[in-house]
């Protein structure tokens, strides 16, 4: 638990008068276990210091029944600032100018952000674009927009300038917040741009924006900002990273975010004692609702600008990290880093983006990481299912256990139950469940509170995705007798080999078990006889690579032999290519479209 | 974690075919740590066994948007039955015929209950009365009514026959479920009565009702029951125990129960490993939403028919209990019982109903109980605030710490923030906050999702309670600078002594610190000079009683001297009476109306 060191905050100092908390409470504040002296020495900008009589209630719209208030995830931050004002909310330590914001200060900054938007003429429903790595600014934007009833559009900073131009135009951003490192990406943008130098110090244009917001508020505080009477209004607009085609804008709502983030906090067992390390980019599906789960549970968050494994390990070992999220590819980077060792206290890791292999799960377990395997899409606020471990697994051999743990499982705490249906081909077709036999492949569909409102300004795509009253995930899965789902493949990644449907994921799972394989991706390649045949792209383990150097043909034979023992003939790779790296999206997803093109043109 | 022993459930046995879960999962089931052989040997009625292809989704009303599903707390049980079918949901061990229901079986019984209601002609919105101590029947009723969209009216079994007649008439119950021990209380009722002999065996009229429900369902399962399209429909109708006047019927809603029970699960840190002991009667404010928090968190619950301290201690020491709720008076009974000792694993105890004294809190702490101090009313679904411990308290002396821990604190996770206002006298008067000075006494008011829909068929009382757009709690409190509230008294319990407002609670807190005082209650008594003066009713500690035997006048002087050192003159008790017991409501609340009458007529 990070609390500011007592030294700077003794009752009766001039400084303590700035906070609206009792002096008795604050006379002795628990010492920070981590970031101690840096945290104690840090001084936020004057505009970030809340008034001594701060109140933490948004103005309520008139006419609501006494027994209903609209669900609004900004409430979580306000509550944390009221109840634990001195707790460290957000640390951003790995930069030239580190910052450490307590909940009290952080809430003030978020309030300033909201007033800054109002001052800039932002109206309810206007889109605010944000281009930033993980940083206080993007975290503040995701809260602050709610105060001004605007919509946050956080954009993937690893997209091309053209893609970003498309998104900025499509969302019609009225204001753009950009991290100094990515300013060149918005040089053609028409909207007003606010640059953040990520210093947290006066003179930083972003800080000046916040200060102007504070001035503009005339100290009306939260009461000067009205909460939306309609909990179904949008909160964020998240563009899918789209491995093919134009990115689509996914609209989330206040209600959906509120309910999904509570489920996330519960499933991840976040609490007062938790410290979450931001490895997952916050611009990815609005950080899987963690931006709101963390204040809901009074957790501390640490932001890192880059996925730097040395830094990640430094935080694992020295900063009291208890939680982080990562796709398997990131997890592989973590567990195979030279600094990797058993962590001194258990760390919960939320794994999504692809099914973890048995090898990865056992590696994580041996290093004292507790895996929470979840599945979801941008359209489902990030995670919407979780693998719920069963006590009966404890007595199984680890390989069987890992296979069960690789299933995507059941719907999240506040989600409506999922279904797996026979893929539909015509609009309006009745949705028919596949049998729960663990064999029949169908499409995962879901409806309810943890589903997006729709695609922004794309009624056709929304109608297609919502056909039959359910959101169609595009993910192919089997449904097990216990009601858990297990993904076989993305619909477009399935390989039609000799008339059989071969799941590229299932092939990858088996190939990943080969001791020399670090990472693998399988795509279909045209075949004169079979239509398509699987082609495997493999990265070798660092230790194994020298042994196979110059002998890739032999490795290929060995891996094919490994596969033949475990897979049906139509699913055994016809071709194996050893590579140094795999093409990935900014969020760590392997871009199979790129691999497919490479496969098609490869000379073998 | 209680799971059924593997012996009865090996894959391939005929029995295992009755459950819709995979055989692989169930081949080896974790052994139950507690209730082992009794749990393994228990056989539910045939009607309680779900079909092998059970599905756990209520039928969805047509016309809902894809991205919204109505909040419905029955979803939690359905989800638990799907994900952890073999986990022990409910144990009822201390009766002639003990029962042990897994989530899978329990959900089937709840479904049968719902179909039983439909079969009996119950329409959505009809009231179903339940008179029962804690038992499977009342727990099933609180879930089952949701399936039939009826309203559960659980009635306090310790009320008089007249009071019960009044409630049955007022709520217009269409059907009455009554435990065999309380059948005489409903002998005049007009509605159809179903008696429960609490056996869980065929031949029990209640079990026959469930079996008939199952038959009536024609195996349509949950899909044959439609979830309410409107999440603001009522779920339960809970009559206040009303220390004065006619009991009022408090209507809760599906949405409110859903949100309050999630908050409860989060605040109490319920989870897979939790076992909740039902000491709090379920008929009290619908069990403070625990009936739904427990399946939400996959917890196990143990029901006990009576508050028997020997039995409670047996379960603390032998049944893996991790959570229970209790008013201070119950806590005193627990900590002062001959079996009391340090419990081997920490037990979380949720304290409400009155502020715990410093003495009680330190006693609980020394016995390895972790206190979660909450405050609420029937009108707020039970708890709506919680005392949030501050790290800064750790360095305070225990007496100061206990004083801070006795505050009622801040609003719950999913509640709207509370306010403390200057008490209003005329309808429509503007609500004005008292200063947050820890001194000015005002009334606690709250609005939003954790507030009742209103008083059933009592628009006048509802309008009075909801004046100005907030629910008026009738509890007087001060507001501290840190935003926490601290109750001073019920409005009607305040003592006007020499023109000063003396808080009976504050006086009790000080008197309870006297080493010879086990329990104390203070009321006002007419005084010729001062208008009113405090009168204290005291129960002595078992060890202290012999010392003061025949010397109550001396004890009275000693206690008054103790009070004079700690309280202003107008708050010092004028009279002290030693008693053997205090008049209490069934929920452990001291009935000050009774004491006031005793005080008025006492010859001193």
Automatic annotation (TrEMBL), chains A, B:
Source organism superkingdom: Eukaryota
InterPro entries to which the protein is assigned, alphabetical: AMP-bd_C, AMP-bd_C_sf, AMP-binding_CS, AMP-dep_synth/lig_dom, ANL_N_sf
Record family assignment: Belongs to the ATP-dependent AMP-binding enzyme family.
Domain AMP-binding enzyme C-terminal as annotated: residue spans: 507-589
Lipid metabolism is among the record's keywords: yes
Keyword terms, alphabetized: Fatty acid metabolism, Ligase, Lipid metabolism
Residue ranges constituting the AMP-dependent synthetase/ligase domain according to the UniProt record: 79-456
Name of the protein in question: Acetyl-CoA synthetase-like protein
A GO BP entry: fatty acid metabolic process
Pfam families on file: AMP-binding (PF00501), AMP-binding_C (PF13193)
Oxidoreductase is among the record's keywords: no
Any one Gene Ontology molecular-function term assigned to this protein's record: ligase activity
Gene3D superfamilies attached to this UniProt entry: 3.30.300.30, N-terminal domain of ligase-like
Signal peptide: none
């Amino acid at each position: 638990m990070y609390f500011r060191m007592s030294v700077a905050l003794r009752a009766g100092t001039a400084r303590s008068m700035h906070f609206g908390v009792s002096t008795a409470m604050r006379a002795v504040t628990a010492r920070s276990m981590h970031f101690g002296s840096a945290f104690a020495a840090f001084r936020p900008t004057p505009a970030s210091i809340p008034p001594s009589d701060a109140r933490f209630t948004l103005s309520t719209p008139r006419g609501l029944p006494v027994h209903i208030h609209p669900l609004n995830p900004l409430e979580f931050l306000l509550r944390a600032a009221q109840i634990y004002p001195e707790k460290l909310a957000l640390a951003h330590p790995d930069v030239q100018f580190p910052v450490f914001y307590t909940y009290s200060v952080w809430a003030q900054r978020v309030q300033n952000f909201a007033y800054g938007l109002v001052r800039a003429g932002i109206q309810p429903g206007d889109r605010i674009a944000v281009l930033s790595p993980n940083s206080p600014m993007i975290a503040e934007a995701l809260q602050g927009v709610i105060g001004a009833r605007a919509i946050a559009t956080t954009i993937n900073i690893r997209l091309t300038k053209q893609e970003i131009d498309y998104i900025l135009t499509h969302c019609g951003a009225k204001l753009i917040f950009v991290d100094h490192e990515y300013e060149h990406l918005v040089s053609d943008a028409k909207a007003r741009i606010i640059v953040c130098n990520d210093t947290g110090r006066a003179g930083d244009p972003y800080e000046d924006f916040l200060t102007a917001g504070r001035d503009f508020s005339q100290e009306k505080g939260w009461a000067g900002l009205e909460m939306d009477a309609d909990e179904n209004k949008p909160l964020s607009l998240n563009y899918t990273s789209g491995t093919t085609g134009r990115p689509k804008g996914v609209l989330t709502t206040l209600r959906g975010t509120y309910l999904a983030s509570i489920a996330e906090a519960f499933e991840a067992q976040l609490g007062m004692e938790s410290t979450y390390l931001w490895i997952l980019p916050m611009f990815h599906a609005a950080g899987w609702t963690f931006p709101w789960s963390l204040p809901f549970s009074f957790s501390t968050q640490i932001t890192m600008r880059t996925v730097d494994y040395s830094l990640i390990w430094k935080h694992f070992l020295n900063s009291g990290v208890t939680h982080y999220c990562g796709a398997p590819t990131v997890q592989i980077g973590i567990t195979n880093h030279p600094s990797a060792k058993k962590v001194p206290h258990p760390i919960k890791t939320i794994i999504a983006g692809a099914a973890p292999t048995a090898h990865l799960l056992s590696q994580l377990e041996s290093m004292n990481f507790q895996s929470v395997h979840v599945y979801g899409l941008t359209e489902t606020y990030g995670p919407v299912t979780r693998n719920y471990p069963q006590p009966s697994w404890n007595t199984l051999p680890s390989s069987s256990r890992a296979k069960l743990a690789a299933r995507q499982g059941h719907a999240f705490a506040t989600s409506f139950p999922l279904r797996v249906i026979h893929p539909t081909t015509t609009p309006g077709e009745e949705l028919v469940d596949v049998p729960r036999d663990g064999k029949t492949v169908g499409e995962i569909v879901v409806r309810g509170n943890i589903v997006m409102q729709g695609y922004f300004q794309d009624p056709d795509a929304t109608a297609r995705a919502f056909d039959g009253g359910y959101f169609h995930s595009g993910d192919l899965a089997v449904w097990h007798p216990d009601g858990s789902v297990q993904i076989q493949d993305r619909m477009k990644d399935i390989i039609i080999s000799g008339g059989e449907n071969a799941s590229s994921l299932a092939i990858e799972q088996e190939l990943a078990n080969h001791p020399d394989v670090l990472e693998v991706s399988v795509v279909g390649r045209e075949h004169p006889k079979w239509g398509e045949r699987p082609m495997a792209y493999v990265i070798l383990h660092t230790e194994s690579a020298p042994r196979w150097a110059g002998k890739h043909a032999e490795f290929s034979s060995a891996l094919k032999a490994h596969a033949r023992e475990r897979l049906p003939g139509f699913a055994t790779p016809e071709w194996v290519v050893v590579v140094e790296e795999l093409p990935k999206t900014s969020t760590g997803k392997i871009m199979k479209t790129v691999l497919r093109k490479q496969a098609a043109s490869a000379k073998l």
